[in-house]
Design a protein that fits this description.
- The complex is a heterodimer of chains A (about 550) and B (about 230).
- Helix content of chain A is about 25%, strand content about 20%.
- With about 550 residues, chain A is α/β, with parallel strands linked by helices.
- The longest helix of chain A is centred in the C-terminal third of the chain and has 20 residues.
- Chain B is about 45% helix and about 0% strand.
- Chain B is elongated and about 80 Å long.
- Chain B starts with a helix and ends in an 8-residue tail after the last helix.
- The chains are: A alpha/beta (about 550), B mainly alpha (about 230).
- The interface between A and B is large, with 68 and 59 residues.
């Protein structure tokens, strides 16, 4: 779990601090819904250009000094187990962190029991930027121009060269560490250079992988500042310093409002999370950054921006959960020091220069050489025998885990379920999505490849799994408001701007045209930065 | 303003200020015998009472497993996670009692795995050894369980019948024991086998319980389940 480091809580106004009369009369330049990476970047860019922004966030501000304490696990009522019956669809939760996730009863969603979906949400100020793995990759033109490459789906209306300058600036802000060792399918960037040598276990792994045409590269990870790489410490302070940003916590947006004369969005109605009081605000421009599915839910509930009928469709993410655990024999018996350690990323290598007949697109591997313990699940033993095995294998574990692209299919979609509302009376989402043979074949191929490589390296496979976790688990949900050049087949244009309403932008993951295998955060940040600069220019020219 | 009016308003202002100051002084220096506003008094210097967790002190009342099931579960715990190397075993850590709480409050599928699994090992013990599972020696119990042990990765426990129970229960028993007070207090717990500590998140700015009953479905459901008598005002 990410810590907040030395981050100071933001000085946010509460709804009660505002004079409703002032709010009624004040028209903001831009209303930003959401405060995570996407919203934080929009706020930073727009306010630095002198644009007055109002940011609404559905949840409260987290303050580690007030909201956390260090506890022994036995002090917790359920000895650290996830409180039973809560957060069934948040596999990442446990008793320590159960209170940071969105309560599934408070903000429910529906799905067919045969096709479960894990919607993992955080509504604290800063959103999911407070808690993420920080893996930081660019998409390549194998993603941006995927249809051109393999004929499936749609190309994005932009290419890597359009986004490269923005990626570069984002990488600087987030202090992304990595090596300039990427093949074309994993473009290099503006990195804090990682020149640590590979450990012997990693060298053996690389020697086994390379002849099979599998590239092994240094991991790429945002270091951030003071132990955190979040909107609340890297983006929002800059926006606040301009004096152009007002933020309201606990403001649950119910619907966008529309100017009756122009048909353009002109603000929103929100509900106070505590008192349920309904309030409204006005703005010339609306920027949605509430997280892929919350932005789409808001637009669907508002009846806006969907002349194409594409909104809600092409929900994508990445398959996680498949992989294996191995052991490096020479590191057993307490001999791991100097042999083990280090992490690598294997970027997608399938369907680049060759073509698989089993699946489209491809997957990456996270590879970790561990100096820690090996879990009991890796041994079919119990009692003294298990204990002896665990002691012998301690410090010899080698992990490989998949991140595989889920291809965009129209039938994988979300829609409003009018029969169910959340705690604030807002209709919820029905999520209808499932993995297909493409994803299952990809996962099986990944485990077969992983087995082949680690066995070539002389490692012992302890456990493996070829079944992906349920859709949504990766917390990389993207799509449902995809961008494109054709207003008949896409919701947003290449500037993340609604085809239907020129003053409406969606800058989170909803705009993705394809998912890729990469953690989407860097792309969300770069797209939000690019869209916000374009918006500022257009506002300056009075085009918006 | 005429001078006479100005002097009058000045005098009034002086008296008003004195009156306000007098009221504040009276509030600050309450007579000893008068009641103190009940929310006053606690401050950062107030000593915090030392309390203990109930585990290890109080006897837990069974709420889910039957007495025969509990006997089987205790035997299972003792077999899968015995006391070793000076560290407590699952029974010492009161893991069976804890699992009664945890499984009893868990969703139906998890309850079924345990209820079905305990029934199965009892039936197997009777079939093979003509005695209750709780009475089997280590060799006999191992003979029943070992064929069902599997290796598996997080979030993907075995799904085949019997293997699901054996492996899930094994995992639960181990985690419950490691995370117990008894384990934490074990003087011999080594560095990498100590009980974990962590950063616990309290509810962040939670909604007040007075929130409208119509607004929060789970609050509404909770209130609907147990009607409290109301006092007329």
């Amino acid at each position: 779990m990410t810590s907040f480091g030395t981050t100071q809580p933001h000085t946010l106004q509460t709804i009660q601090d505002w004079n409703p009369e002032d709010m009624k009369s004040e028209v903001f330049d831009v209303l930003i819904v959401g405060s995570g990476h996407a919203g934080g970047m929009a706020a930073k860019i727009l306010t630095e250009k002198g644009i007055r922004c109002l940011m609404l966030n559905a949840g409260p501000v987290a303050d580690v000094s007030r909201d956390t304490s260090r506890k022994q696990v036995y002090e917790l009522p359920y000895r650290g187990f996830k409180p039973p019956g809560r957060l069934d669809h948040v596999f990442q939760s446990n008793e320590f962190n159960a209170n940071v996730w969105v309560d599934e009863q408070e903000v429910p969603y529906t799905f067919d029991a045969a096709n479960p979906y894990n919607w993992v949400r955080v509504r604290l100020f800063g959103g999911r930027s407070l808690f993420w793995s920080r893996q930081s990759f660019r998409l390549s033109d194998y993603e941006f121009k995927a249809k051109t490459h393999d004929g499936f789906g749609e190309d994005w209306p932009i290419s890597h060269s359009d986004l490269a300058p923005f990626y570069s600036r984002v990488e600087d802000i987030f202090q992304v560490a990595g090596a300039l060792d990427g093949p074309p399918q994993m473009p290099d960037g503006n990195f804090v250079i990682d020149d640590d040598p590979w450990t012997p276990s990693m060298q053996r792994f690389i020697a086994a992988a390379t002849p099979k045409g599998i590239p092994v590269c240094k991991q790429r990870r945002a270091m951030g500042r003071d132990g955190l790489a979040s909107s609340v410490n890297l983006l929002l302070p800059d926006a606040e310093q301009t004096g152009k940003l007002k933020s309201i916590a606990n403001a649950v947006v119910r619907t966008l409002t529309v100017d009756k004369n122009t048909g353009l969005p002109n603000g929103c109605v929100f509900v106070d999370r505590h008192t349920l009081q309904e309030m409204s605000v006005k703005a010339r421009v609306v920027v949605l950054a509430a997280g892929t599915l919350e932005s789409t839910r808001l637009l669907l509930n508002s009846g806006l921006a969907n002349s194409s009928g594409v909104m809600g469709h092409y929900l994508m993410d990445q398959i996680y959960g498949a992989g294996l655990v191995a052991s490096v024999p020479e590191a057993r018996g307490g001999n791991g020091k100097g042999i083990m350690g280090g992490a690598a990323i294997i970027p997608r290598f399938r369907n680049i220069s060759t073509k698989s007949d089993k699946f489209l697109r491809g997957y990456a591997f996270n590879v970790t050489s561990s100096t820690g313990g090996v879990g009991a699940r890796n041994f079919a033993a119990f009692g003294a025998e298990l204990q002896q095995k665990m002691e012998e294998y301690h410090g010899s574990a080698f992990y490989m885990g998949i991140m595989g692209e889920v291809i965009g299919r129209r039938e994988n979609h979300v829609r409003i379920n009018p029969a169910k509302v959340d705690a604030w009376g807002i209709p919820v989402l029905h999520i209808e999505t499932r993995y297909t043979d493409n994803e299952y074949n990809m996962a099986k191929d990944a485990v077969d490849v992983a087995m082949e490589v680690v066995e070539s390296a002389g490692f012992e496979v302890l456990s493996k799994n070829a079944v992906p976790n349920p859709p949504g688990y990766s917390i990389h949900e993207v799509g449902t408001c995809r961008m494109g050049d054709d207003p008949k087949t896409s919701v947003l244009n290449k500037w993340s701007q609604s085809h239907d309403h020129k003053n409406l932008f969606v800058v989170d993951g909803a705009g993705f045209t394809s998912a890729g295998w990469q953690n989407p955060t860097m792309t969300i940040l770069a797209l939000s930065m690019r869209a916000s600069e374009h918006l500022a220019d257009e506002m300056g020219k009075l085009n918006v | 303003m005429r001078r006479r009016d100005f002097v009058r308003s000045l005098i009034a202002a002086v008296f008003a200020t004195r009156g306000l100051a007098a009221q504040q002084a009276a509030r600050q220096q309450l007579p000893i015998a008068s009641p103190v506003p009940w929310t006053l008094g606690l401050n950062p210097k107030t000593p915090i009472p030392q309390t203990a967790v109930a585990e290890g002190i109080a006897e837990a009342k069974l709420s889910f497993f039957t007495a025969p099931q509990m006997e089987s579960l205790e035997r299972l715990c003792d077999l899968l996670m015995p006391a070793m190397g000076g560290k407590p075993g699952a029974v010492d850590a009161e893991t069976p009692q804890f699992l009664d709480l945890l499984i009893g409050q868990s969703p139906e599928p998890r309850k079924k795995i345990y209820a079905g699994g305990l029934a199965w090992i009892e039936a197997e013990a009777q079939k093979k050894f003509k005695m209750a599972f709780a009475k089997l020696d280590d060799g006999q119990a191992s003979e029943l369980l070992k064929p069902w042990l599997r290796t598996w990765m997080s979030d993907h426990p075995p799904v085949e019948s019997h293997a699901d129970f054996v492996n899930v229960a094994h995992d639960d028993i181990r985690e419950s024991t490691f995370n117990s007070k008894a384990w934490a207090e074990s003087a011999l717990a080594s560095t990498h086998e100590g009980t974990p500590t962590g950063v616990y998140w309290s509810p962040v700015d939670p909604e007040p319980h007075t929130m409208s009953e119509n607004a929060k479905p789970h609050v509404q459901a909770a209130k609907g389940a147990a009607k409290m008598p109301m006092y007329p005002r």
